[in-house]
Amino acid sequence: GYGAGHLLRRFLDDGAQVAGVDPDQLGVDVDPEVARRGRLHRGGVEDLVGEELGRHDLVYGIHVVEHVADPAATFATARALLRPGGTLSLITPAGDSSGLRLHGEHWWMLEDPTHVRFFTARSLARAAHDAGLVDVEVRRPVLDSLSVDVASLSRRRGRPAPGGVLASRPVLAASVASVPAVVAARLARPALRPTLQLVAHAPA
Questions:
Q1: In this predicted model, what pLDDT tens digit does every residue of 140-158 receive, in sequence order?
Q2: Closest CA to 32 of 14, 5, 10, 13
Q3: Where are the beta strands (DSSP E) in the chain?
């Protein structure tokens, strides 16, 4: 899910070699330095074979694994891509977030029809263990998806906009204004955090 390649460019600028895979990337508006120096593939991570396997220090996915049809295959391939001791880091919506129980069908993470599954902290860790990864840790980031609460309230009030509720300028403005209160609530009650971050390693 490298998109326009902004994160890959940051890794390049820090001196790393980079590769990316994206099923929907058509080579449009990709950072030119990433396109020139990165090993970019179109398709799913499960399609990667050969020279990419076993050569990576880090496999990173931001809001990707909730879209895949076969998460077991995704985890197995991520494990195969890593060098011994390499790190897998994935960020994904938290299916056990209190926000889902609070907002129900209006929870903003449900707005995207391409979200095919949600993980709990327990199921995410189990998927990593089942793929043969070790030192598995699941975190709940405080600062990811800070607009979820306001967007969910907007969906509850029936204010859809073309392209989703966050395409609405008033909703975006309210999201920005709500950041201090949202961060304070998440610090006080970690279960409100709407995303999970998995960090795991290939056996050394």
A1: 999 999 999 999 999 888 7
A2: 5
A3: 19-22, 39-42, 56-62, 82-93, 134-139, 195-201
Q: If DSSP codes are grouped into helix, strand and coil, which group holds residue 64?
A: coil
Residue 51 has pLDDT above 80, yes or no: no
Rounded Cα distance, 75 and 82, in Å? 11
CA nearest 22: which of 37, 9, 3? Answer: 3
Is-above-0.85 flag for pTM? Answer: yes
The answer to whether the beta carbons of residues 129 and 136 sit under 8 Å apart is: yes
* Nearest-angstrom CA–CA distance, 148 and 125: 24
Closest alpha carbon to 148 in 81, 72, 63, 88: 63
